[in-house]
Amino acid sequence: MNYKKFGSRYVVRLDKGDEIVSSLKQFCTENSIRLGSITGIGAANSITIGLFETASKQYHSKTLTGDFEITGLTGNISFMNNEVYLHLHITVSDSAYKTFGGHLTSAVISGTCELAIDTIDGTIERQFDEDTGLNIYNL
Q1: 0.85 exceeded by the pTM?
Q2: How many C-beta atoms lie closer than 10 Å to residue 43's C-beta?
Q3: Residue 39's closest CA among 96, 7, 77, 85?
Q4: CA distance 100 to 56
Q5: In this structure, are strands 9-15 and 99-119 parallel, antiparallel, or unpaired?
Q6: 76-87 per-position pLDDT tens digit
Q7: Closest to 80 measured CA to CA, from 12, 25, 18
Q8: How many helices (H) and strands (E) does the chain have?
Q9: Adjacent-strand bridge partners of 115
């Protein structure tokens, strides 16, 4: 991973073999980022995405393997239980240009991933909401 900072924005490059979620969590921890947003594009060859089923309050996940373009990665940074909490969604396309998307659990970079992280001065904590079964912003 390499990065440059411009004001409150970081431009980040993940490299082949880097895992997106753990790399970003470590990056935010090391740079004391507690609140912000993330966008990115790139390529990955092992991606686990999920769909939250509201009726059962459970995530269902699927792992995709092969060559995939990351056509869009977006999410936010907050805090829960004294650690960085990432909420990321991803859309990827395969060699047949079929797209898949959902909540990003993990993705291993096969080429590169280019990201922009916009930081916000402050902290928003998350809390578990029994009604939805989700960790939501505590505003």
Answers
A1: yes
A2: 16
A3: 77
A4: 22
A5: antiparallel
A6: 999 999 999 999
A7: 25
A8: 1, 8
A9: 12, 40
